[in-house]
Amino acid sequence: MRAITTIPPGGGVKLSQVNEGSSSGIRIKTHLTGICGTDKEIAAGKLKFARPEVGQSLILGHEAVGIVSETSDDAAFKEGDVVVPIVRRPGKCRMCQLGRQDYCEDGDFVEAGIRGKNGFMRDEFVENAEYLVKVDNAGILDLAVLTEPLKNVMKMKEIFQFLRLRIPWYCSDSTLSCKNMYVFGTGTEGLLISTVFKELGMNVVEVNRHPLGENVLNYLENNKIEYLDTSAEKLDRRVKEFSMDAAVDAVGAMDVFKEITDNINSNGIALMFGTSGQLPSSNYEVLESIVDKNVAIVGSVDGAKIHYSEAINFLEAHGKGMHMEKLITGKYEPEDLKVFTEREKGEIKKVIAWS
Ligand SMILES: [Zn+2]
């Protein structure tokens, strides 16, 4: 079968013929795989922790949706079921054994398509039922390729809901309608974060350092998400008008962290998601402002099986209404390997169609 492979950590990418071998489990025909920044980093040889499962080469791909083609009688899945595979597989630590490998304590896990396990950019793969999440509504077959990036946001939402219960943080009408959430970063992940917190009832402001393309602007406008281009208007000016009650950093730059701590309200909630490889610098003023303002800052990575299910439920309930199909801006053949190196005009999420 065809598979998109790389030689980590050096990178490179090619369409290869590979043999699955005789693994037992549920056989899945890949429908779509999404391409994200991590795939591009691995292909460019920039992700140091990328490593193969066996031998030298790694099959790429961690965002996927597929259709069950073969299964055993007692399996929880039947032929034709639409499924999304889980990326991170547990190691031996306490959290991993509880099914919360997203909170792994010793780093002894593997991630499909990233480190220590082959990914899903191939015609088909065999999987254990416990690492599959079912999509009940076949009407969101294509949209379900967004499950993997969206599950990160469902975990973020869970942390947010937990943190805001520290104090009565809601508005006088008992909702979050008076609260402003600033989201830094306008990639797919940033847009998914904005979508989810908008749906939660907050006023959301997407922040970027340069003008945005039409696709992104239309998406934000359709969902009544505000937009701030800091090359045209300063952040602190907007914050004077709409105070920063909460923020998510989906960029991973130390200066974004400082912008958040400088501008966030007392009792604010800051969720740190992005990692860009920049080294943190010590800055006493930032620390002082976090303490004085009781700001809750939490790092968040990955998500658990429950968050995959929640992401699928979100796509079912709001995918159409919130125009989420517009986030998928290009569908490519497995042969089109330039998707890993070239950026299309107006690109948000590119996907590879396998069947
Ligand atoms: Zn672990």
Can you walk through the features of this model?
Helices cover 25% and strands 27% of the residues. It has 355 residues and is an alpha/beta fold. The two termini are 12 Å apart. The mean pLDDT is 93. The strands form four sheets. Strands 3, 5, 6, 10, 11, 18 and 19 form a seven-stranded mixed beta sheet that branches. Strands 14-13-12-15-16-17 form a six-stranded parallel beta sheet, with helices on both faces. The chain contains nine helices and 19 strands. Helix 3 (147-163) crosses helix 4 (188-199). It folds into two domains: 2-135 and 327-353, Medium-chain alcohol dehydrogenases, catalytic domain (Quinone Oxidoreductase, Chain A, domain 1); 151-299, Rossmann fold. The structure holds zinc ion.
Features:
alpha/beta; 25% helix; Quinone Oxidoreductase, Chain A, domain 1; six-stranded parallel β-sheet; 19 strands; 355 residues; 2 domains
